[in-house]
Amino acid sequence: MLKEFKEFAMRGNVVDMAVGIIIGGAFGTIVKSLVSDVLMPPIGLLMGNVDFSNLFITLKEGSTPGPYNALADAQGAGAVTMNYGMFFNTVISFIIVAFAVFMLIRWLNKLKKQEEEKPADPTTKDCSFCKTEIPIEASRCPNCTSQIEGKAA
User: Fold this and answer.
1) Same domain for 104 and 136?
2) Which helix (H) or strand (E) holds 2?
3) 45 shares its domain with 105
4) Strand partners of residue 135
5) Are 139 and 152 in contact (CB under 8 A)?
6) How far is 32 from 35, CA to CA, in rounded Å?
7) By the 8 A CB rule, do 140 and 146 touch?
8) Considering its fold, how many domains does the chain have in total?
9) Distance (Å, rounded) from C-alpha 60 to C-alpha 77?
């Protein structure tokens, strides 16, 4: 059973998938940082100094009554909150990841299409005398036995 598992785990597809998952996780972390640390601060500044990570609605106050100035204060007091600012950040992260995956798939499809459109090198030619299809390397036609031009007998 251990040998079977080793054969399964070492297959090309499984290893490729594992690498994809690891890189995908790292990419997700980078995108999360891009959204929360690079994109959202200027957007918040343009919208009147809004910090999206601190946008929340208090559903139930905690041990210390509100209003709470920041999400961390509300959570520290044990308040139940609906964190729509964090959800907004997550939606933007998803859109960026989805767009990056779309662009990658689009690029791969374009490469695949170019490869499919590339004509294969011919392997046959027509005999100039009897018009029968013969191998491209042939020096004599097997049908009419004519000597083909460009090839020595």
Assistant:
1) no
2) helix 2-9
3) yes
4) 124
5) yes
6) 5
7) yes
8) 2
9) 11
